[in-house]
Amino acid sequence: MKKLIAIISVLAAGFVGTAKADITMSAGQSLEMQSIGSSTNLSIGGSLGFAFSQDLGNGITVTMSGLSFGNDVAVVGDGIVTTASANATNSTSVLSSTIYVNTRNVDGSTPGGGKTDITNNVAIASVTGLHEGQNTFLTSAATDSDAFEQISFATANGTLTYGSDVEIDYADLGVGDVLSSDLTDTGMAKNTSSLSLGNIGGNGIQYATSFGGSSLTIGYLLDNGGGADSFDTSATADNTMALKTAIPVGPLTATIGYTSDNSTASNTTMGVSTSMAAANGTLSVSYVSSDATTDVTQMGASYKTTLGGASVAIGYSNTDKDGASNTSIITGSISQSIGTGASVFAEFVSKSGTVANSSGGTDTSAVLLGSSFAF
Q1: Is the domain of 134 the same as that of 164?
Q2: Which residues fall within 8 angstroms of residue 146, CB to CB, at 6 or more apart?
């Protein structure tokens, strides 16, 4: 409760102009329908996020990732996960939701100056099998959530970021996938050839800067299998190094990315993409090569334009994995604004070079209709 009150106080202060920090809030909602094989699937999802930044007055601006919550088809279940404490007891099941119950004593001061134990009690008389005077923690559902896992320091020369969930997938430069929804290709057959980037997330740092018309980003993961808020830098850990640069070359914009994962199953990936204006739109091509236990290459292309007020895109990729048949994928999308922050869209995907997925699904095409709203 105290944490909730503190958050509300900060937000309220931001609205009335007494807080020094800049507070940014974003939210969105989507409703989608997928048609795949003989099935029609409906999905609703959304996201909510807060970010905080502060100008220190000395040329440095500090930004923290703040809070973010998301719920869509990429998240199993529904709701917000609360991890139960290690000493949770008397667990039971209510409507397939696991509930843990425990009590905790804290020291409190009496008027006479002594101390006594104060029990944090919550009465739950309406749920059979639970005991009055105990806390409950619901763990049945899942919402993708992040909180205060990155902090950035920006100056006129660049931005330095440290975090427990830094992603440095700089070589992932494929342009052939123009889908925006996770639902569009959910449930489809498994690709016989797919690109592997190695371990590209964990505890690490990244630095981004620009000079002339070019940009440069360098990243290093101290622990590419990590993600803990507290990290022992003296402990043995696998590392990943990456860099990315974007360079204008005449009418083209070329981006080159490189990642090197030194884990036991090491993976070195190089990617390049370029784009240029073409026929009232933008044409992009890409090539990504992964040198791992099994080598993989991927070529891709996409074209994006506008027709009337609608945004239209089509993409193609071909992935070649040693010892497996190639996988080719065609994707397409069209999106039309229907008001401030609102749009309707349609997407399709078609594959070749597939095998049955883990559930036995063999569908190689799907269509999706959706709407999205930004607040």
Answers
A1: no
A2: 65, 67, 68, 165
Q: Is 124 exposed, middle or buried (0-12, 13-18, 19+ CB in 10 A)?
A: middle
Q: Which residues pair with 307 in a beta bridge?
A: 310
**Nearest-angstrom CA–CA distance, 164 and 346:** 36
- How far is CA 31 from each of CA 47, 68, 178, 183, 369, rounded to the nearest angstrom? 12, 20, 19, 11, 9
Q: What is the mean pLDDT of residues 163-169?
A: 91
Backbone angle region of 60, left / alpha / beta, with phi > 0 → left and psi within -120 to 50 → alpha = beta
In whole angstroms, give the CA distance from residue 53 to residue 231. Answer: 24
210 and 334 part of one domain:
yes
Residue 11 lies in a domain: no
Q: Containing domain of residue 113, as a range?
A: 89-138
User: Vertex 317, ends 314 and 321: CA angle to 5°?
Assistant: 170
54 lies in some domain: no
- Are 284 and 205 members of one domain? yes
Instruction: Tell whether 77 is covered by a domain.
Output: no
* Tens of pLDDT, residues 324-366: 999 999 999 999 999 999 999 999 999 999 999 999 999 999 9
pLDDT of residue 196: 87
Q: What is the pTM of this model?
A: 0.75
User: Quick check: is 51 in a domain?
Assistant: no
Task: Check which CATH number belongs to the domain holding 172 and give it.
Answer: 2.40.160.10
At 273, give phi and psi (nearest 5°).
-140, 155
Token pair listed for 287: 């090539």
Distance (Å, rounded) from C-alpha 178 to C-alpha 330? 9
Please state the φ and ψ torsions of residue 188, each to the nearest 5 degrees: -80, 170
Residue 16 DSSP SS3: helix
CB pairs under 8 A, 24+ apart, for 123-129?
A: 127/94, 127/99, 129/92, 129/94
Q: What angle do CA 120, 122, 128 make, to 5 degrees?
A: 140
SS3 59: coil
The secondary structure of residue 187, as a DSSP letter, is: T
- Cα 48–Cα 49–Cα 53 angle in degrees, nearest 5: 165
Burial (CB count within 10 angstroms: exposed 0-12, middle 13-18, buried 19+), residue 269 = buried
- Give the pairing of strands 296-307 and 310-321: antiparallel
CB 265 within 8 A of CB 199: no
